[in-house]
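User: I've been going back and forth on whether these two constructs are worth ordering. Before I decide, could you fold them both?

Assistant: Sure. I'll take them in the order you sent them. The first construct and its structure tokens:
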Amino acid sequence: MKKGLSKYKFERLAVESLRNALRLHFDSALLYTHHSYPSAFQLSILALEEFSKAKWVEHYYFSSITNSGFPDEKFEQGWLQLLYIHPEKQTAFFAGEMFDYSPPFFDFVRKRGLETKKQRATYVGFDRSKARINTASRLSTPGRIKQKDAKQMISLLNSEFLEIHQRISAEEGYFSIDEMDGVISNQMAALLKKWPHKTNLKSRRWWTSWDKKLSSANPPLNRTRATTARAG
């Protein structure tokens, strides 16, 4: 008998993570309307992490059932540990669509800038460098997180959820776990459409910026990668 997560538990993990991501997203939007911008920003990052986790689990699940089956318990444990590391989930948000996002935003997330900003939206304290506290640094308070910070993150998540709903409607399904499609329902879409702001962090226009960025680093190899990723 296989040790580790059952097929049923994989499905539940993906579905409930997606449902929780929507809950956190709507809570963050509610806090935004009440001008609690640091808390709105923090919850929006948590929503992004849960959304990323849901997609990551769904991809792992789909790859396993369509290829050689679920890996052994040791591999599974190593992979599951990643779901508890916040910067890993934040970076996983870009999976498969990296070139659609702003390169500076991608670099900011990859270099753990978003995680640091999330912590600053939550706690009062000083900057840290490894195990040392920099007592000469400026005191950080959640009030340094502004309206524009919260608006940007909430708008990004809102557009992601709406885009998936549109694809579910057009293609009669998006996720490989059918129940996940039902989570982003027409009723949910109606609530998402009430958010009045847009994001500029995701757009096909970022392809040109990525081509320039990757070409300057390694022209023959990276340009091919960028073109291949977009084609896929």
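The second construct, handled the same way:
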Amino acid sequence: MLLADAGDKNSVLISGELAGKYAFVETGLNGVDAPLSSATNQNTYLLSVGLNDNKFAIQCDKRFIGAVLGQTAGSNFSYAGQGTPSLSVNLQPKSAQSATKGLSNYKDVLIEGVTSRLYPPTTGTDNTTTYSAINGARGAYAAFSFQVNPNISQNDFSKYGRVAYAMFGTSNLYDYIDTIVYVRGINTNVVLQLPIRVIQASQS
């Protein structure tokens, strides 16, 4: 019901699904003055100076997010030729966690960061920016998803979110809670705020 109502299924993560959709975050040097994407520039400006994130901390509210599913070290993002990239992502539950400093109810879950191998082809048109948000030297990427805390009660949805709401313009009603997930690169310390909406079919 949710997937049918949502329309854009690319924005929907299914709780606990290892082979489904996932969030994808990249780091690197972006902008008009950024050094061009290449293996050489990646090494010069990122790898050799310790600015490549081999791990990311996923910081989430444990009241709503039960588990983080992170990519494994065998994941890969590279140029496959014929104008298309090769992206291989495998997810698994991550258990290493600690309390997030300065954020009540939050936990840090460490996941692997994998170095991007998406370099422009040596000949022909460079269309790698069609598949990457970074237009300069690319660093690491992180792919991840979530498992919703199974202990969220109906009272929690009433207290922290909204219940019996027709959010997609159909007659179907949903309960939801909005929360923010922070994605922090361990080496670069860059932080992305990612809004997440936890949705269930209305229980009211």
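Notes on the second construct follow. The chain has a mean pLDDT of 92. Residues 2-201 form one domain.
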